[in-house]
Design a protein that fits this description.
The chain is an alpha+beta fold. It has helices at about 10-40, 45-50, 85-100, 240, and strands at about 115-120, 125, 135, 140-145, 150, 155-165, 170-175, 180-185, 195-200, 205, 220-225, 230. The radius of gyration is 55 Å and the shape is rod-shaped. The termini are far apart.
Length: about 240
């Protein structure tokens, strides 16, 4: 007698099919994974290489600082910076200039023969007899008669000739000894001109009454001396005054 197979209900049949499908997919995936892994060869990762510590042998010469007290350690003398020839020459010139002695001749003669009536005030205020005000007296007044020859105190060059409303006719001599001498209150008729070289004792001009700032004083020569651009006492540089 022929046996007949019973049909599964529709819902159970569907569930069985799903389970079988999942099982088949899992088997296929596992098989593919195993085949792939079997073909791979182990390699070192870059991250492993980067994290690998490398140790130098102990007492490495490169890491040991030079010690001049030990004989088994290489010694390295400090290198000196090369000196350029131009720099050495400049340095030598500067040293020579600094050490070079400064010689200024101090010989100066009296420009006129006479006594000093009003000395150099050295920055102190004194009352002007003519102007009636307190002011510094930046020179000295040497008494002499009108028309007296005024002699150059030392050799030099006539730097300037001017006619000032207060100090009258003035002649400025730049001397070879470094001094600048101002002869003030001279007559308008002069024996020199600007740029002319003069020798010690040469006549520059004659005293007069052109110095209005000191007109009430007895006739005299107003003499001023500058050294390094500053007024100094004229009598301090006159040789005859030191004797």
């Amino acid at each position: 007698m022929k046996k007949t197979r019973k049909a599964l209900p529709a819902g159970k049949g569907m569930a069985v099919a799903v389970v079988l499908g999942i099982a088949a997919v899992s088997v296929a995936t596992l098989t593919a994974y195993n085949r792939t892994m079997s073909r791979l060869t182990p390699t070192e990762s870059e991250s492993v290489v980067e994290n690998t510590w490398v140790f130098e042998p102990e007492n490495s010469v490169a890491d040991v600082p030079a010690n001049n007290t030990k004989d088994d350690v290489p010694k390295k003398e400090p290198e000196e910076a090369p000196v350029k020839a131009a720099d050495a020459e400049i340095a030598g010139d500067e040293a020579e200039e600094v050490n070079k002695p400064v010689v200024i001749e101090s010989r100066n003669i009296m420009p006129v023969d006479g006594e000093v009536s009003h000395p150099f005030s050295n920055g102190e205020l004194v009352k002007s007899e003519t102007l009636g005000v307190w002011k510094t007296h930046d020179g000295c007044d040497i008494l002499c008669a009108l028309g007296t020859d005024v002699r150059s105190m030392s050799s030099g060059i006539i730097k300037e000739i001017s006619e000032d409303p207060l100090w009258g006719v003035c002649v400025v001599v730049e001397q070879e000894n470094g001094l600048e001498v101002h002869y003030c209150g001279l007559a308008k008729e002069l024996d020199v001109k600007t740029g002319q070289n003069v020798q010690e004792g040469a006549v520059i001009g004659k005293t007069s009454d052109t110095c209005q700032a000191e007109i009430v004083q007895p006739p005299h020569l107003h003499l001023g001396v500058k050294q390094g651009g500053k007024w100094i006492d004229p009598m301090s540089v006159i040789e005859s005054a030191k004797d």
